[in-house]
Amino acid sequence: MKILIIEDEYALLKTMEDFLLSEKYMVEKATDYHSAMEKTMIYNYDCILLDISLPGGSGLKILDKMKKEGKAGNIIIISAKNSLEDKILGLDLGADDYLAKPFHLLELNARIKAVLRRKQSDGKLLLSLGNLSIDFAQRQVFAGDKILKLNRKEFDILAFLATNKNRLVTKETLAEHVWGDNIDLADNFDFVYWQVKNLRKKLKNSVSQAAIENVYGIGYKLTI
Predict the structure, then answer these.
(1) Residue 62: which H helix or E strand, with range?
(2) Ramachandran angles phi, psi of 181, nearest 5°
(3) Please, how many CA atoms are within 13 Å of residue 206, restricted to the half-sphere of its CB?
(4) 3-state helix, strand, coil in the chain (%, to 5)
(5) Which of 12, 6, 5 is nearest to 55 (CA)?
(6) Closest CA to 46 of 99, 98, 4
């Protein structure tokens, strides 16, 4: 799952990044208003941790722009400002939660998981697709009563395709979501092909009722 941290205080940014990486999240960073605005307009994230006070502009303006562009969602404001007015304005602009500094990293993780659950499967921790079950909290997949052993990238691919069941997902979109924003610099997407090929083989060998269809030259679709 991909998280964008928008924070200009280096020590806090580094602390959050190290913690979230240890929790197996993919992390992108922005340290000022302009880079944050660019990332939020170009890329998609599972969760955004947004500071209000940024060099060059306000995080609330980023929220407002995202709302107008239809990109608001799964945003947690993290700010030293803790006034009721700031909270109400941030939530009105599309933020899902508000966490005042200083905060405990375990609480931050709990808030992130809460907004991710709401997005991934309508608030459920477990998503069932035929005889295939995906446990987002434990990052485990079961085909029937047998666990399906996947590496980190295979799980992220399957989770993303599953939450977009029956929808065509392009190779570019899948690569950006699983490997990060800088993937647009890649010469080709052969690495996506090989990961998906291995995943499809594991699904087939497990007699999963869910399968990944290859839409030639475009991308992939998970179907039952």
Answers:
(1) helix 59-68
(2) -65, -35
(3) 24
(4) 45, 25, 30
(5) 6
(6) 4
The CA-atom distances, in angstroms, between 135 and each of 139, 147, 162, 177, 213 are: 6, 11, 12, 19, 22
What is the domain class of 126-223 according to CATH?
Answer: mainly alpha
Judge if 2-121 and 126-223 fold alike in CATH terms: no
Neighbours of 199 (CB within 10 A): 22
Q: Which amino acid is at 136?
A: F
Sign for the pseudo-dihedral over CA of 164, 169, 173, 175: positive
Query: pTM of this prediction?
Result: 0.63
pLDDT digits (tens, 9 = 90+) for 79-109: 887 666 777 788 888 888 888 888 899 889 8
- The structural domains of the chain, with segments of one domain joined by +, span 2-121, 126-223
Please tell me the distance from the alpha carbon of residue 66 to that of residue 53, in angstroms, as a whole number: 17
Question: Strands (DSSP E) along 64-208, which ranges?
Answer: 75-79, 97-100, 126-129, 132-135, 140-143, 146-148, 169-170
Q: How far apart are CA 84 and CA 159, in angstroms?
A: 36
2-121 CATH fold: Rossmann fold (3.40.50)
